[in-house]
Amino acid sequence: MRTKQYIKEMNQYSAALSRENQKKFDQILLTLRFAPVNNHDAEEFSHHCLDLFLQAEKENKPVEEVLNTNDMDELCNSFINESKNGYSWLEKMYWQINYLPLVLFIFTGIWEMLAGFLVKEWFTGHATAAVPVTVSLCVDTVFAMAIIAFLFRKAHSFYNIFNGADKRKDRLATLALFLGSYAVIGLFVVSQLVFTQILFYVNYAAFMGTLAAIIIVQHFIENKRV
User: Fold this and answer.
1) If I label 168, which of 69, 122, 210, 223 is the partner at 20 to 30 A Cα–Cα?
2) What is the pTM of this model?
């Protein structure tokens, strides 16, 4: 979604909501933020929900009565499924993987290639722009993408846990994330020690330049006015 203007509009109008309704509306926004739907559809639905929230407050009614549901997740999932039914298979696929170029740029390009290889080479006096693509690099990248996809799908669930009244679930979720982060680091280390075979070499500047161009094009396409 268009970040600056969109967030400004939402904050301006949602500030009139009660604290309880603000929390429910934030849950809807968070779900939409990571939903595999296009920005235009997500913005229209969020504005529609905000209108209903404001209507409920104006009429002094429970927002669930105006929305005709007690489950914000069910409301969002119904919208997401309805929106996806109108997409072509190509558009459905795109909104499932549109974050991949950014993951490749940050994780593979900056973390793995630059910090993990080039910086070491430069400090040892080897001025090179060629980066070896190893089996480990491919495995780590696929694993990182899977983790990001999981976190995107579960973002609203974590939000509910960390902002809920059940402190036991909060502690368990915190512990799970803590242990999971160490497990991920361990898997990356083992991968780099075991899967050392070099598949081919890529030019770092060309690789990062291509990804940067793709990300810029994505930004303009995804944020164009419909």
Assistant:
1) 69
2) 0.74
Contacts 24+ apart (CB under 8 A), 76-83: 76/28, 76/31, 76/32, 76/35, 76/156, 79/37, 79/45, 80/35, 80/36, 80/37, 83/37, 83/38, 83/41, 83/45
Residue 84 CB partners (closer than 8 Å, separation 6+) = 36, 37, 92, 95
**Among residues 35, 30, 24, 29, which one has the least CA distance to residue 66?**
24
Q: What is the mean pLDDT of residues 193-207?
A: 93
Where do the CATH 1.10.1900 domains begin and end in the chain? 3-87
What fold does the segment set 3-87 form as a domain? Answer: c-terminal domain of poly(a) binding protein (1.10.1900)
- The 10s digit of each residue's pLDDT in 136-187 is 999 999 988 888 888 887 777 777 777 766 778 888 888 888 888 888 888 8
Q: What is the Cβ-side half-sphere exposure of residue 150, based on CA atoms within 13 angstroms?
A: 8
Taking residues 99-103, what's their average pLDDT? 90
Buried b (16+ CB within 10 A) or exposed e, 72-96: beebbeebbeebbeebeeeeeebbe
Q: Which tokens is 138 given?
A: 């491919």
d(CA 6, CA 9): 5
